[in-house]
Design a protein that fits this description.
Oligomer: homodimer
Number of helices of chain A: 8
Number of strands of chain A: 0
Shape of chain A: elongated
Distance between the termini of chain A: 63 Å
CATH superfamily of the largest domain in chain A: lambda repressor-like DNA-binding domains
Helix content of chain A: 55-70%
CATH topology of the largest domain in chain A: 434 Repressor (Amino-terminal Domain)
CATH class of the largest domain in chain A: Mainly Alpha
Strand content of chain A: under 5%
Structural class of chain A: mainly alpha
Number of domains of chain A: 2
DNA sequence: CATACTGTTAATTGTTTAGTGAACGCGCGC
DNA sequence: GCGCGCGTTCACTAAACAATTAACAGTATG
């Protein structure tokens, strides 16, 4: 037993997705603009995952979810830090308050945020 | 006119706060464990702000808000990326949904998140 | 067997980051 | 005018990061 390690690590998932699409290592390396060597290392996890923007183009080329892959890579998409800093105390507080919520609960909260957006349009104070 | 530039930049705010507390540059540098040289550079903004954890100890020693200072420094506190990655698609979605909300609205949402936390305690599924 | 792919390994590289140390000029007290 | 504490400037660096080049082994095709 213990042969089937699901391995949701970035390198492993990347290799699976690349092979599933029928791209050779050299070809895909060229598509994303890195050396075949580097891509090999990344897939084997001998080196850290690439930068957030390269992870993004990889995910896009392979039709995968960018946020998910970015998280797997241990990175953050570029827009998030800016959102956090736009309300430097309130957004961190919110994030700490949502820690541990289920995906469903998070979606509920997202829906409520969208409601608030609409409210903000009409009545100003 | 245009003499009073509020200057909410990290270096400027740091210097104000340090001087207000009556610490000399050399003394405060020693308190936080950096060279006086470096602290001087930081306050003048000749170099980038320090790492998130050093910003944190600075803010704490000066009695200032850590999240606010971290944002000023263009950094993120260490706990936030982990929270985001704990639900890699839902939390980014939430963040994008709250972009542009007022601080009051954000606090409302935080309160709702806390409600959800309580709900989660009792009824599972 | 030549060649044309596949992926892999080792060594090295350029850049950025986060700082340091030595020396400098200024004013203050004596 | 000597020492002392103040902040500043210049030159430099150790470590990390993101990646590269060159050379290699295996497999399959003609």
């Amino acid at each position: 037993m213990s042969k089937r390690k699901p391995d949701r690590s970035f390198g492993h998932v990347l290799r699976e997705a690349r092979v599933a699409k029928g791209f050779s290592l050299r070809k895909f390396a060229q598509m994303i603009g890195v050396s075949p060597t580097y891509l090999s290392q990344v897939e084997q996890e001998n080196v850290d995952p690439p930068t957030a923007d390269r992870v993004q183009t990889m995910a896009e080329l392979l039709g995968e979810n960018v946020d998910e892959w970015t998280a797997l890579a241990g990175r953050l998409t570029e827009d998030l830090p800016d959102i956090i800093r736009s309300s430097p105390t309130e957004v961190p507080d919110l994030l700490r308050a949502v820690r541990g919520l289920t995906p469903e609960q998070l979606r509920t909260l997202t829906a409520q945020a969208e409601q608030l957006q609409k409210q903000g349009k009409s009545r100003e104070k």
